Queue: 2 jobs
Job 1
Amino acid sequence: MAFCFNFTTKDSEEKSLNIDDILLEAPVSKKKKIEQVVTDFKEITVEDCKADYPYDLEVNTYQLTDSITVSCYDAGAIEEILKKDKDDSSSVVKATSCHSDLVPNVYEGGLTVWECGIDLASYVAKDVDFTDKMILELGCGAGIPGICAMLCGAKVVHFQDYNEEVLKEYTIPNVKQLNTDDDVKCTCRYFSGDWSQFSDKIDNEQSYDIILTAETIYNPDNYQKLHDVFTSQLDKHGTVYLAAKSNYFGVGGGIGLFEDFMNGKGKFSCKICKTIEAGVPREIMQLKWKNTNIDKQTEKT
């Protein structure tokens, strides 16, 4: 069975994810390798970003509120630049060349502006106070929710994506070249790698007030990793805002399944904040600690 996100935004309207084809056509030995190999945790600095895009490169803008507008480079334009400038070892080039949104444990769709990312940014821009807060965006890609937090007064924003190439070629240019000026007083850091390593290797002196994440629950195999990041990194009075489709056909994930998983763990209360009606509905979920007296360091289960 083929799996397609079926989104309608400009950057994602022609994208499709045939995850069953990827896994079913692979030999058994390769299937096991796909499941076991993960990308190591790494901090990416602004100096690591060598992207120098032409001034007339296509830019998309998203009007989140009357006063908050986020800009990002057009993903298709970035893909074309990477195809010209990168060799065949580039994970992004490999994925885009075969018109895939995902190559498991190699590329997780970071060069696509997913609808739920826009949903999440639009929601939090109106309904969440970011003033002087410490923010983490997990699975950031273009970084639109995290950039929104910057523009809304966050003190610190950390951007995490599975693929370091996405951070260097897309996230950092979006943050530094399009959305940062002298009026934005925010410290940003960038991290690549698998979530399973994030909590053990991040060197934060304090927990995150808010964690933002969109389109990250399509694969149920990753739910435990997300849960572990939340339990180890979210402040005891903090909040997670998660945006996703109600169902991801072909892979099995979705809001309902993730809510059941989190309820089974018993650490967080889950509430649907908003539902966007569509062929496949999209939802925004809020998660908070059930017990604010909890010692987070002992709760990684």
Note: The two ends are 33 Å apart (CA to CA).
Job 2
Amino acid sequence: MNINSNTPLILPGMVAGRRTKLLIDSGASLTLINLQFFLQLPHYYRQKAQSPPPNLCLQLADRSQLYVKYVLSLPITISNSTRGHRIYVVPKLWRSCIIGNDLIRKHNLQIDGGHQYAYFKSKKSAQLQQERKETINNDDNYVLIANERIIISPLHVFNIEVKPIKPFLITEDDEENEYEVTSIKEAPCVANDIITPRQHMTLQLADLTERTIIIYKNQPLVTMTRLNQTQLNMMQHGTISSATKQMTSTTDNELNLINTDLDEYQKEKIK
């Protein structure tokens, strides 16, 4: 591989959920990150790193060689769109991340140097579905934990930011990767909903008891379970049971309590 001194394009982006500056250089054959940035990645990704192929040779334009320590696949986000790609970890790389020609060609990255902009060109639906199968490897189940400490008064509702115990690929607005949310405990009650993995996740908690509830940071709150194909088909045809969303949020501050077991007094109190 050679790295030439072409005029680069530097854009903000993310690698495995970590924000950084991406140097987009079509003169670089491969996509690289340095060791310092690699060590900042979540353990979930770092543990997947492997040794590079023995015949791999990374050269600069002056033919000097760079040592490659690891190889791994990571999600890369450019202009709010994410693709999974193989990345090479170079300890002494002078940039945190260099986007090479391998990613540019494979994922059809369009570069507008005049406007300092780059984006992934959209593809046909069938091609996108195949690409998802190849690049998105989220698990079928996740546990979401509280990202902050809060106190919920009796018969009150509170919005809380949550995060997964282990990282997942961001698949916002991807109907092929939808999950059902279910409360771990009866109190607090979490509004059941269908969600997709995203960078910032907020759930609505309801204290349906007569006592104050304290939620601690990193406390497990809900499970995320991937919907199977039958459930997805039912949703697409509008035939999925409304019981799946017992407490769907109707507005930012209002709950639909029709399908809950509350009596009329409790419903009026929480509203």
Note: The first strand starts at residue 2 and ends at 3.
